[in-house]
Each structure stands twice: as C-alpha cells, then as structure tokens.
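Note to self: keep these together.
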Amino acid sequence: MSTLHLYNTATREVAPFTPIEKGQVGIYLCGATVQGEPHIGHIRSGVNFDILRRWLIASGNKVTFIRNVTDIDDKILHKAVHENEPWWAVAMKYERAFTDAYRALNVIDPTYEPRATGHITQMIELMELLVERGFAYAPGNGDLYLEVRKLPSYLTLSNQKLDDLLPAADADEKFKKDPRDFALWKSAKPNDPSWPTPWGPGRPGWHLECSAMAHQYLGDEFDIHGGGMDLIFPHHENEIAQSEAAGYKFARLWMHNAWVTTAGEKMSKSLGNSLIVSEILKKYRGIEVRWYLGSAHYRSMLEFSFGALDESVTNFKRIENFLERISKSGEIEKAIDSEFKVAMDSDLAVPEVLALISKWLRAGNTALAEDQMDIARDYGSKIRGALDILGCDPFDPAFNNNGGKVEQSAGIERALDGLISFLLSERDEARSRKDFQSADRIRDRIAELGILIEDTNQGTRWSVK
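Structure:
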C-alpha cells in the first residue's frame, strides 16, 4: 500500500508525508493580494492546492485549510487612487472577484479566510515579542525592522547568501542597521490608512501578516505552507525569519506551485498578457478551465495558449461523453483505483493520472462497443473517482452555476431523450410492420441531428456523435 510522498522546497527532496497529529492536517496557503481582477496565473495555485486538499481528505484526513487575503498593500492604495475609490472598497471588490473565480473553478472554500486588516492585534503582539526577544528594532521614525543577521537559518529556503542580496526595497535605508533588514511595520503616510502601535501609527509590512495569521489559526507548528514559487523569496523567507525569531517552529513542509507562462515568461499584468478568469469563462466552462490548469504537475510550468486550452477541452469532452453514455443506465459510483492512488501518492503526479484516465476511457469505449456495460461502468467508476479528486467531476453540483455540462444540460437532455425515444419507438413500429423505407428515413433524420444510433441485443441506444 502506497504512502503519500511530497516534495519539500526546504529540503529539495520528495519524502513521506506524516502529519504532526495523525489524521489531522493543517495547511496555510498564501492567498491573493486583492488589487485587481484575478488572471489564471493567480488561480492556478488555488487549483493545485485544492487537489492536494481533496486527496488528503480522500485519504482519511481532516484538513484545516487557511487561505489569507492581503487587503492592505501599496498596490491596493495605488489602485484606489487610480479608481478614485476608498482603498477598502477596492480591496472588497477584487476580493469578491477572486472568490467568484475560485468558486467557478470548483475550488473548495477555505476553512478560514482571514484578512490582514482583521488581524492587526495579532501582528502587534508578534512585533512586541520580536522586540522583546531582541530580533526587531524601532529606529524612531515609526517603522519597525527585523534584524536578519541575527538569524543563522535565514535564506535556507531559497538557498541564497545574505551578502549577495540587494537591499530590501520596503523602506528608507538610512534607518536600517543593515540594508537587507526588512520592514515589519511601516509608519503612516499622509492620507494612507493607519493603525496605532507602541511605535506610532502605520500599517503592516507584507510579510508580517502571514506569520501572525498562520500562528493564530494553526499554532506554533503546522504541517504544510504553500504558495506560488515566486513567493519563496522574499515573502516565505521573511515569514520563516519572523516566526523562528518569535520562537515558533512554524511550517514543517513547504510546497510551491510553478507559474502559468506565456511565451516562456511569468504571466503578470506588467507583461500585458493577463488572461482574466472572468473573460475566459465567457468562452469556456469552469470545469474545462480547471481541467486545463490542473493538467500539468504542480511543480511544472504551464505554458498557456488558447490552442492548448482548446485541445484540452476536446479531450475532456470525450471523457464527459463517455460518462454521459453509461450514466443512462444508472448512477455511476466513484471508485479510487489502486493505480490512481500510487500516482497521487507520488507527489500528486497528475500527468500520470491523466494517462490512466485515457487508458480507462479507451477500454471503456471498447467495452461499450462490445455491449459489455458492466465492464464499461467499472471503468466509468474509476474515471469518476479520479475526476472527483481533480475537482472535475461533471456530475458535481458545484458546476450548476458555472457551466458544468451534465448539470446545465440536464433539462434539455431529458427533453431530447424523450423526443429521440419517441422517434425510435416509431422506427421500431415501422420495422415491425416491415416498412423499412419509413424506418430508414427516421434513422437518417436522427443521424442528421448528430445522434448516433446503436442497435444491440439489449435494444437500441443513442448518443451524441
């Protein structure tokens, strides 16, 4: 029996995963900085870690899943000026856009989704602890910095050398003991939002919030910390520095998903090649976009093109059509196949899973062609079990409102089934009275509608070509 193995960025190796507490897994995922509409590069992280979460649950674990929202940040303040809106209104608008995108792609809601502005108290308590322990200093200008040279383990996640780093670009260097020290707290600027602290009014640095919120919801030590690979430095390095300086053990395992790229470059607004999720969903169903984003291994770059997306959609529709055909004889159970388990336990090897689904699809279609419905249904159960973990089960009610094929077309299909059944009964009556000309005419008209007719020993079946 296989055991779940995961790649740890900190150790740079794949190793068996053992939760701190058996059957309980705590995960902290760095969520969105809500300063604009989400593009598919943003949402890939949500999909990848949702697959991890689903597999952990299917393997018998209870998962506490935290995904934060950064709702105060330089970029948000900048966007608020350009949109002539209060900063909090801008943050709320784009937070809702991210929520809509996650739900459209069937990403399970986090257990808790804390906002940075809702945890200022916890941040102040953490900063007081860092000052007390001698790792943080206030130069008197209202800022607070972490003294990174006091931390021997600093930069072990990204495997860099401190003296090779450029100065941290989050405050005025003249106030720092070392130009690489980073800001825990930023003093208030005119017209910017601020909160009172013992060092003066201001707002949190980007890194501080995650250390405070991870500790609040998951404790001194938790199982997995996740995010995009672009967060390894400086964000995750600085989270580790703050947390270890405070005396926390923090995360045992670090997981990072790769980027979605276009023309070999990271997808970002600065490149002018953003692909906004809400726009893509006008042309493609949520289940299709999720299938595409989840198709590559989470640690592999996904080179986006509409041609590749279209090809992915075509392949997925073949799977849907097979499941629809066998679902006409009754509900398809979901089964976790042993080969599937081995692939998922091998650092979530989704490409191997897709190869298995293709193999089962070919065998299932062969069984259907040979009127071996029981065998076809067995393969359908394996496929549906795999799709459920990948979050792409066409029968999942979650796709009701975002374009799930089976659910969206259920009423139309029932009506179509009734009409075609009526025509087939008319054809059978014509054949029984040996009026083969009328029977053939009915068959040809049905075929013109794109319906495939199969005469079997168990009766006549139909499916969409």
